[in-house]
């Protein structure tokens, strides 16, 4: 007889409701099995036929870390396209390549950690390249498009499951694991949460990743906002994945908890469902969770809640329905369509910043000098895949104009390095060594990739080798050997010409020349050690550093001036290497172009006034553009970057990228990197009151456009705005129509201009089209701290249509019905300390480890607070404050002296133990309350009675 096949368990039945399937599977798992699922690398459960699963596949602008893949422009470049349809198609292509790569390599995960929706608040942030925009509306529009492409359009099964990064208010690499972002309620709700919220509400997000930093004194990995905000925005089970190593940081770096068991329990209860810690080794997380269970810090239902969220994602990815899931057969990888899309995205990302005298497009018969450190480069960043195809600006121009019309000078200094005995550093030949591209084989953690040791180390001989020395700013140098490989240091400490490009988590290809006696010491920045010449080769060592004399064979400026002088036009390609001076773990220190590149630009401009500057960079620069007739910017554009730039320069494509963030004119325009108060600090185009170098939304075209026929209508909770746009030029081109608003007479500080909507249009010469936007009136609301919620203020609002935040072509005023401002009910509710209207030198901190805010002086001096329009009704006679720590609180009304003084002389046992201080104060009616805090005093609440 043949044994009957046992019936499939209910969790395998695709016809059952998802919740019932998850319930069934949870009931079959043992507690230990469920605990093991909490680590990033969840093991297989063979008895149930459940495969291993990992969270986290990087896919920011293509599949990253897992070897060759289509590489699209950096995220900030995708943001610069202002094109949601394009970005959706890019997301779709990336998700198809994830599926295709997984079919041949099961290390490739389907839970993709992308996109990054952190707002580009500060242009010196090292990870500027990862975000889309400084504006929450544009960021959420682009992020929503990308997640929809990643998710796919099947009603049940997701092609990939996107996780948004990095929750929350994360814009600094400096002290990123220990710094706290002080975020007032208005900034929290109107700015930082908004980009996440609108993207999650769009319905194509599987989860979020908390950031390393703290917000208001509390680590993001135990943030109450995960529960109070994030999980209220959708009915879907969202998977919260920790950032790498962040669970351990709660104890090891932030010292927020005394034990890892406490920290792990707190993170799980706050809403973290998957712990990314200790690489592929899950044993420590499992042990910590088991310890927390044994100590009564967690219960099995707490574990079930987190595992349920992970299983929900796995079910949606089709893991348990192999015959129903339409995606496993996806084979679209490096297709013609994907290559074409990569070029289209790179073309649409190019922003024409200036074009005096119509120098661009370049004449087809022009003799062009192409110069600069980025002229023959196609740079990748930390979250790139390995290039299958590549195109540099020089190669693109060769292809478009012909090599015979090009002259090239990279602008590096050609140098030799002479030792005290008269010999020179020499690169031995290694003809048997194969070319090797970093990361080509893929790696779950590319930070662990080791340098090459199969090549001979440098030696010294009588003639030596000539090196290409590139100065990337702040004294950071790279040295390239004659064969094109960069000098690098492997784990054995020897210096070799071994790297195809600078890269890695700790870059091993950067050096610094340090003056010493009559020469220099060469410090290797990756190890911090100096270069030493020994009998067995050149190495880095703690002692016995070799003194080197830098012999300049040819200065880069001379080479640039020579080719520039003989050309009809000069293209200077300047910018950054995404692994050097501004990247994850390292913020920039200045907006200025590195001095060496500034010298190259000056040399070209002096030799030839017809000089075009093309900035290829991950972030804005403050460049002296007055003497330059033409300036362009593009982010690192991926595999088709050079072809795209050449087609724009030639006029085959009219540029239509728009700046996704303000380009400031000078460092003096910037707030402190850790000042997250965009409102009080007048940051971003929303509040900046100075004159930018180039404004948000700026970008020129080879065509011209006119705007007309503005009309508005308010009905059914919506503002309907329509106008027409016409191409008045003589080439087909794209225009990005932008709609902004401004409250005319607000009762509190509001944005000087705020993006409501946008649309990218393609118009033929003479073509006119209508543009209509329907804007919900909720877009005009702001967070009213007096009521602790959003409010639409009635009154007049300007409606502005145009080509940028400053290039307004049409305007009108609409009057919206709304709620009038009301005084704070101070007697009834008192004042929550963090709900201030204005502050100076105040930091918001955690009231307790689990919830609530308090305030304290942000520096060594006093901190000032103002609470406007506090209603004391018929009168008060007492003020009671809840405080912790020790110090002095001074209180006054209406901007006069602060006569009321309360002193907490005896420190409380810890920052979370509060006490009440009461003093007599007589007042009635409506007044502004002014408070000054001195010393390490925490204020949580101010109450009034009488």
Q: How would you sum up this structure, described in words?
A:
The chain is of the alpha+beta class and 946 residues long. It is built from 18 helices and 48 strands. Strands 11-28-27-26-12-13 form a 6-stranded mixed sheet, sandwiched between helices. It has a 5-stranded parallel sheet with strand order 3-4-5-7-10. It has a 5-stranded antiparallel sheet with strand order 39-42-47-44-45, with no helix packed on it. Helix content is 20%, strand content 29%. Helix 4 runs parallel beside helix 5.
Structural class, judged by helices and strands? alpha+beta
Which term fits the overall shape?
A: globular
Radius of gyration: 30 Å
Strand content: 25-35%
Largest sheet: 6 strands, mixed
Overall pLDDT:
96
Identify the strand order in the major beta sheet.
11-28-27-26-12-13
């Amino acid at each position: 007889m043949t044994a009957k096949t046992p019936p499939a368990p209910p969790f395998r039945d695709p016809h059952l409701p998802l919740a019932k399937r998850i319930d069934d599977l949870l009931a079959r798992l043992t507690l230990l099995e469920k605990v093991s699922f909490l680590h990033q690398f969840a093991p297989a459960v063979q008895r149930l036929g459940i495969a291993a699963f990992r969270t986290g596949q990087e896919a920011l602008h293509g599949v990253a870390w897992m070897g060759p893949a289509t590489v699209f422009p950096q995220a900030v470049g995708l943001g610069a396209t202002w094109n949601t349809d394009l970005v959706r198609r890019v997301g779709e292509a990336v998700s198809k390549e994830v599926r295709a790569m997984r079919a041949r390599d099961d290390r490739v995960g389907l839970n993709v950690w992308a996109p990054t929706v952190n707002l580009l608040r500060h242009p010196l942030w090292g990870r500027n390249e990862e975000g889309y925009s400084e504006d929450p509306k544009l960021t959420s529009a682009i992020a929503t498009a990308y997640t929809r492409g990643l998710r796919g359009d099947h009603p049940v099964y997701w092609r990939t499951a996107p996780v948004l990064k990095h929750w929350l208010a994360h814009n600094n690499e400096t002290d990123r694991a220990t710094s706290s972002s002080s975020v007032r309620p208005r900034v929290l709700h109107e700015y930082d949460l908004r980009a996440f919220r609108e993207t999650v509400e769009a319905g194509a997000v599987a989860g979020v990743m908390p950031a390393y930093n703290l917000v208001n004194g509390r680590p993001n990995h135990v943030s109450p906002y995960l529960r109070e905000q994030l999980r209220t925005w959708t009915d879907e089970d969202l998977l919260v994945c920790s950032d790498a190593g962040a669970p351990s940081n709660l104890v090891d770096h932030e010292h927020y908890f005394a034990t890892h068991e406490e920290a792990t329990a707190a993170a799980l209860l706050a809403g973290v469902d998957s712990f990314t810690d200790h690489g592929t080794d899950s044993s420590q997380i499992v042990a910590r969770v088991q310890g927390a269970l044994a100590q009564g810090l967690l219960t099995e239902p707490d574990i079930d809640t987190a595992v349920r969220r992970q299983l929900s994602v796995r079910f949606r990815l089709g893991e348990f329905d192999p015959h129903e899931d339409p995606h496993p057969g996806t084979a679209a990888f490096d297709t013609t369509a994907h290559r074409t899309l990569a070029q289209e995205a790179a073309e649409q990302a190019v922003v024409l910043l200036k074009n005096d005298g119509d120098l661009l497009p370049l004449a087809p018969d022009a003799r062009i000098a192409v110069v600069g450190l980025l002229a023959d480069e196609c740079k990748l960043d930390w979250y790139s895949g390995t290039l299958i195809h590549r195109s540099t600006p020089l190669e693109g121009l060769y292809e478009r104009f012909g090599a015979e019309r090009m002259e090239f000078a990279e602008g590096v200094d050609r140098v030799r390095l002479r030792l005290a005995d008269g010999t020179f550093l020499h690169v031995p030949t290694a003809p048997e060594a194969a070319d090797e591209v970093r990361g080509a084989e893929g790696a779950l953690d590319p930070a662990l990739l080791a340098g090459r040791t199969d090549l001979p180390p440098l030696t010294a001989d009588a003639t030596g080798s000539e090196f290409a020395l590139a100065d990337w700013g702040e004294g950071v140098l790279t040295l390239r050997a004659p064969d094109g490989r960069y000098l690098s240091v492997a784990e054995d400490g020897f210096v070799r010409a071994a790297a195809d490009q600078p890269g890695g988590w700790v870059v091993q290809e950067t050096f610094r020349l340090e003056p010493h006696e009559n020469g220099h010491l060469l410090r290797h920045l990756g190890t911090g050690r100096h270069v030493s010449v020994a009998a067995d080769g050149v190495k880095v060592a703690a002692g016995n550093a070799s003194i080197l004399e830098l012999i300049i064979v040819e200065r880069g400026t001379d080479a640039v001036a020579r080719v520039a002088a003989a050309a009809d036009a000069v293209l200077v390609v300047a910018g950054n290497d995404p692994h050097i001076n501004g990247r994850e773990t390292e913020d920039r220190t200045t907006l200025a172009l590195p001095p060496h590149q500034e010298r190259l630009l000056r040399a070209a401009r002096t030799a030839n006034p017809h000089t075009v500057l093309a900035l290829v960079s991950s972030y804005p620069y403050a460049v002296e553009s007055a003497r330059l007739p033409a300036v362009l910017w593009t982010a690192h554009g991926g595999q088709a970057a050079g072809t795209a730039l050449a087609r724009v320069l030639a006029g085959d494509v009219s540029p239509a990228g728009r700046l996704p963030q303000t380009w400031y004119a000078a460092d003096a325009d910037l707030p402190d990197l850790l000042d997250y108060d965009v409102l009080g600090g007048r940051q971003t185009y929303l509040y900046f009151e100075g004159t930018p170098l180039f404004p948000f939304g700026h970008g020129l075209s080879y065509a011209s456009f006119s705007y007309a026929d503005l009309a508005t209508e308010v009905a059914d909770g919506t503002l309907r705005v329509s106008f027409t746009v016409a191409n008045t030029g003589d080439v087909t081109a794209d225009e990005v129509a932008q709609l902004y608003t401004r409250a005319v007479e607000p009762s509190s500080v509001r944005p000087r201009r705020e993006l409501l909507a946008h649309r990218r249009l393609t118009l033929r010469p003479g073509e006119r089209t209508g543009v209509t936007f329907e804007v919900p009136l909720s877009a005009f609301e702001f967070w009213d701290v007096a009521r602790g919620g959003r409010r639409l203020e009635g009154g007049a609002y300007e409606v502005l249509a145009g080509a940028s935040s400053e290039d307004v072509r049409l305007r009108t005023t609409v009057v919206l019905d709304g709620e009038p401002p009301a005084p704070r009910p101070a007697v009834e509710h008192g004042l929550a300390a963090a709900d201030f209207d204005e502050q100076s030198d105040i930091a918001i901190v955690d009231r307790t480890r689990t919830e609530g805010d308090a305030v304290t002086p942000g520096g060594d001096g006093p901190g000032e607070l103002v609470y406007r329009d506090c209603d004391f009704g018929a009168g008060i006679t007492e003020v009671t404050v809840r405080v912790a720590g020790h110090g002095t609180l001074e209180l006054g009304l209406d901007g006069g002296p602060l006569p009321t003084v309360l002193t907490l002389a005896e420190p409380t046992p810890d920052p979370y133990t509060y006490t009440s201080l009461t003093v007599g104060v007589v007042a009635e009616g409506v007044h502004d309350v002014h408070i000054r805090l001195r010393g390490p005093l925490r204020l949580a609440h101010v109450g009034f009675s009488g």
